[in-house]
Every structure is written in C-alpha cells, then in structure tokens.
Amino acid sequence: MSEFFRLFANCIPVKGSEESIIIDLQNNEYIDIPNLLFDVLEINHDRTVENTKSFFNNELDEGIDNYFNNFMEVEYGFFLKNVQSFPPLSLEWFSPLEVNNAILEINENCKYDYISAIKELSSLGCSSLQLRISKINIKECIFEILEATRKSRIRSIEMILPEYLFDFSFCEYLEDIENRISLFIIHSIADENRVMELYGKSKFHEQKRLLFTPKIIDTLTSDKRTKENFVINVDFFCESQKFNVALNRKVCIDNGGYYKNFLSHKDVHGNFNTKSIKEIINDKEFTRKWFINNDNIDICKDCQFRYICLDNTDIEFDGRSWHKIENCGFDPYKNEWNAS
Asked: 3-state SS of 232-246?
C-alpha cells in the first residue's frame, strides 16, 4: 500500500549552507537535520514514500524509513493516504499597528519631549516600549511616564537604568496592574555578587522581571546574536518571511530627538522636534530597511536560522547586494559558532 509521509504543518524545514533545521512552531523549538534529509523532505512533499525512495534510486531506503519513523515517534510527522486533507500552514503576516514597538533614549539634557513622543506612539498603536533612562530625577521621570501610559495602547514597558539610579522600591511598579511596566534591566553593575546577595532571591528576579548586567547599555549597544536569543513562534516566523523583524515597524529616538531604525545605527532620518512620528513612518527612506528580510541579506540568506534570528545589526547596500555591517557569531558555511 502506497502511503504518504507529511510533517505536521507547524514543523517547517529550513535549509542552510551546510546544515538544515526543522522548526516546530507549536512547541517553540528546532532540531538539526542534514541537508540531504531536507532534500528528501522536499522531494517527498507531493510524492508517496515509495516514489520518494525511487527518486533516490532506492539508495536511501533505510535512512528514509528510520527518519520518518522517528519523526512520527517524536510527533513531528505522520503517515497518511490523502495529502490533500492536510494543507500547509499559511505564512501570511498582518498587523493593524502602524508602529509595533519603539525605543526611546532619555538621558540628562534630553532634547525632545519624550512624553509627547509616548503619546503619539500610543496613538499609532505601539504596544511595546523600551526606555533607556539615565536621568538624575528618575522618580519624577518614571511618574511622568506612568501617567502618560496609564490609559494608553502601550501594553509593555521595559525600563533600562544604570545601577546608580536604581532603587528596589521601583519594583512596586511591577505589581501595579494599573501601569504597563513589565521589566527592569539594571546595567553597569559594579559588583555582581553584592547585587545577587541583595536582590537575587527576590521574586522579581526569580520571575525574570528584574535583571542585572555588568555591561553598559547605551546608544551604541546592540543585541548579541546567540542561540539563546532565537525567537520561535508562529508570528515571528511568518513576519520574517517578508520583513526584517528586528526593524519592522520600529521607531527609535535618541537623546537628541533624532530618528533611527535602531539606536546603534549611524543613519538619522530627521528629528522629533521638526517631524512627527506619523511623518517618519511614511518616509520611504526610513522604512526601506523594514522590508529587507534575511533572504535578501548576504550570508544570512544561507543560514538555517534566518527565520528565527532577531538581529538589529545595521545593513547596507553596496550596489549589488545587502549585507550586515557587523559580523555574526555564527558561520553558516562552517556551521559553527565563533568561540567569542
């Protein structure tokens, strides 16, 4: 009896230069597979198992049986008689929000009205906000922000503060259902052991809502690309098919009021004092990089992790193709992570 084998719709193979993966969007995980198995799965997509084996001149029969049976055991796939009854997962992505998320830098001598910026972001549907604050009058600043967001469309606020401005009493905001603060990240920690003794056993730290790092977080800080930073879910995967997820519908404003795609990027696109956020998101030069996904970026396009990687590194066009300015920690051509 001729049977088909099909991966579950939420289990999607992605091919890299030297190795492939299967991303399980339901269980938020991935497994490594050899590229030859990826090719088998591609050929097998609309063929019976018997015809797939014949395509490879029956040289891979044992391997195909072993892999398909193993996939069935770990609930990655199943055998069936009618493939038409199991269509693939739709990868269409849509968001009604004009701005998905934003980062505001608020230091001493801030050159723009960040409260006005927060209110406009809310009017544009922004749901997630990161605030990098280094103002001496931090308590007053937080109070102003809470008042501006209390009845806003913003649902999640990350507060990033240097250690010298942090007061444990701020954690009361994490329990206040009336405000939107969901996380405090405290950077430039001088003595990690001391901090862990003081706050390491607090429920907020155990809940990962109060985090500490010795690293400095400022305008030039960008996220480090590691396995731990991979994002595996349906929404992210679908968005990554056509968009640069780290930059798409993101607005960043530095302490001088200048718009950037990300704070660490060098290019600026006007200033909040002379151009509204609504105007900047309608500026094609500003939004251009939103649409450059990893399939269109050198090296990234050959990486098996391209649809689960959140990378805010700046990209540039050299006249022939797009490439990232900073080197990645993973080399898809050697299929290995750099030691650093």
From this structure: CCHHHHHHHCCCCCC
Which amino acid appears at position 205 of this protein?
Answer: H
Going by C-alpha positions, the residue among 303, 312, 310, 314 that lies closest to residue 337 is 303
Nearest CA-CA partner of 261 in 276, 246, 273, 271: 246
49 and 5 in contact (C-beta within 8 Å)? Answer: yes
What are 294's two structure tokens? 């990893």
| DSSP secondary structure letter of residue 90 | P
Contact (Cβ atoms closer than 8 angstroms) between residue 43 and residue 54? no
Give the residues across from 131 on adjacent strands. Answer: 104, 159
Q: Which secondary-structure segment (H or E) carries 181?
A: strand 181-187
pLDDT (tens digit, 9 = 90+) per residue, 201-251?
999 999 999 999 999 999 988 777 788 889 999 999 999 999 999 999 999
The size of the chain, in residues, is 340
What gap in Å lies between CA 187 and CA 281, rounded to an integer? 31
Angle at 12 between CA 6 and CA 13, to 5 degrees: 95
- Can you tell me the distance from the alpha carbon of 152 to that of 172, in angstroms, rounded to the nearest whole number? 20
The CA distance from 23 to 21, in Å, is 6
Query: Cβ distance 108 to 134 under 8 Å?
Result: yes
294: helix, strand or coil: helix
Residue 162 CB-half CA count within 13 A: 15
Could you please report the per-residue DSSP string of 186-252? EE--S-HHHHHHHHTTSHHHHTTSEEE-SS--STT------GGG---SHHHHHHHTTS-TTTTTEEE
Q: Three-class SS of residue 331?
A: strand
- Bridge partners, 253 (sequence order): 104, 259
Residue 270 pLDDT > 60: yes
Based on its alpha-carbon atoms, the radius of gyration of the chain, rounded to whole angstroms, reads 24
pLDDT tens, 150-182?
889 999 999 999 999 999 999 999 998 888 999
CB neighbour list of residue 238: distance below 8 Å, 6 or more residues apart: 91, 92, 93
